[in-house]
Amino acid sequence: GASVLLLRACLALLASPIYLLSFLGIWEPFCRKVFFPFILEKICVLHDKKSKKHKEELFRSLPDFRGPSGALRLLEIGTGSGSNFQFYPPGCKVTCTDINPNFQEGLAKNMKKNQHLHYEQFLVAAGEDLGQVPSGSVDAVVCTLVLCSVHSVSSTLREVLRVLRPGGAFYFLEHVAAEHSSWRYFWQQVCYPTWKLVFAGCCLTRELWKNLEEAKFSELKIQHISMAMPWMPIEPHIVGYGVK
């Protein structure tokens, strides 16, 4: 515990300009509008390379959840710049949501590259409050690298279950806490406060599989995987889907 606190203090000292900007109320709006969209796009390029085979395997079953009309109505929580679009099946009707509306440039680029999809609308909404989406109106919900930063994981999962039709599926790929006895978890604890500040509320030590197990899915498939991300404490991941 003492080692963690000492190293946290050292890291905070290195990041002191950001802490000062946060104290002055400057960092959060700058991060939301400029830094986070820019850095997330860079991280996503690396993460997409590492996760491509996992996403291809994960989203392969999406067509199985088409609705009675034959169309697949998909809602993505935390769309960001749209890096998942390439994995969705042709003709899929996509509704994009994100709490941060400042991803337009990357989003427009990926929409143009993925014209096999039908883009229904973009909603500025948090995962915990999808009130603009009618209950039981979508066949699939997708959430990747988002549950780490929502204010309430349980509230977000309740909203997921509300908007899904019976028999619909929730797809996820998220970084999670490492084993508590590991050095990875030690460094996650060290980095936690500064990482959360710099990366717009991203929490390193969430045990998201427990939240998913507690949610009321009729079927749940979770796989623990590891994706090496150089110099980043986000190697442990979970991937899978739950059926309403």
Automatic annotation (TrEMBL):
It comes from Erythrocercus mccallii. Residues 75-172 form the Methyltransferase type domain. It comes from the Eukaryota. This is MET7A protein. GO terms for molecular function: S-adenosylmethionine-dependent methyltransferase activity. InterPro entries: Methyltransf_11 (IPR013216), SAM-dependent_MTases_sf (IPR029063), Thiol_S-MT (IPR052356). The lineage of its organism: Eukaryota, Metazoa, Chordata, Craniata, Vertebrata. SUPFAM superfamilies: S-adenosyl-L-methionine-dependent methyltransferases.
